[in-house]
Amino acid sequence: MGNEKIQTPWYFGGLSASMAAVVTHPLDTIKVRLQTQVKGTGLVTTISNMAFKEGVGSFYRGLTASLLRQATYSTARFAVYEKAKEELSKRSGSQSSTINNLLAGLIGGVVGGIAGSPADRANVLAQSKAPQASGNVFNTLYRVMTEDGVLAVFQGIGPNIVRGMLMTATQIGSYDIIKQYMLDSGFFKDGLGTHFLGSSAAGLIATTVTNPVDVVKTRLMSSKPGTYTGSFDCMYKLMRAEGPAAFMKGWIPSFTRLGPHTVLTLVIYDELKELYIHSKKTA
Predict the structure, then answer these.
(1) Which of 12, 15, 136, 249 has its CA 20 to 30 A from that of 70?
(2) Could you give the CA distance from residue 107 to residue 109 in angstroms, rounded to a whole number?
(3) Count of H helices and E strands in the chain?
(4) Distance between CA atoms of 81 and 142, rounded to whole angstroms?
(5) C-alpha distances in angstroms, 259 versus 17, 113, 156?
(6) Which tens digit of pLDDT belongs to each residue from 207-264?
(7) Is-contact 231 216, C-beta < 8 A?
């Protein structure tokens, strides 16, 4: 996904994702509201209620937590993905391969899921209007720790790691794979148009694969301790009370958010790397 001869800064992934989050955060808030409803009111009604009953500012509820999440989660997963892909390529002797990219994505997702879990929980609490949401992200995390214990900030870390693995593999990994196929076909050149098409396809794949895990993660993170004994208990209760369709709750706003977020993140990421490499070559 980059130039192997010049190492680009490790924080470019987190920076790109943070910039994208500012644009797509309202869609993420709508998705969380839909996923935390036991009896859904529907997309249009949810948006209407937020806009007219809570005000336009409600769409940006939890933005500080979202930015902290990207600064931890995305910085870690992008940095680890690139390093893992590089090491796997050296071991296999293949500069680019589907297996290497997907495996590197899984590894990066584990680290990112762990690193971003506290901020992710604070984000979900704020977006779902949970009682523990208290001002900015740091106040929320402090309140969670004082009321439920230090480890409570990691509630939902299991599905968060699984989601991080699937997300990184199907988003960043598949983007590299799709882009390489496009370039190898001879019909596309390495430029903004190819980056846009490749990242759009990656966003669609990532949304569909991760949505069920995302629903479980959101339910766990927005609930009080003791509501569920774990991920499987949450899945069982969700299936029993709401049926299998519950696992695809929020898919439309999720794709509406993750599609543009994936495009913006990966396009900005590639552009930052290209600008950096160019500046180094001309220095």
Answers:
(1) 249
(2) 5
(3) 11, 0
(4) 31
(5) 13, 20, 24
(6) 999 999 989 988 998 888 889 998 999 999 999 999 999 999 889 878 888 899 999 9
(7) yes
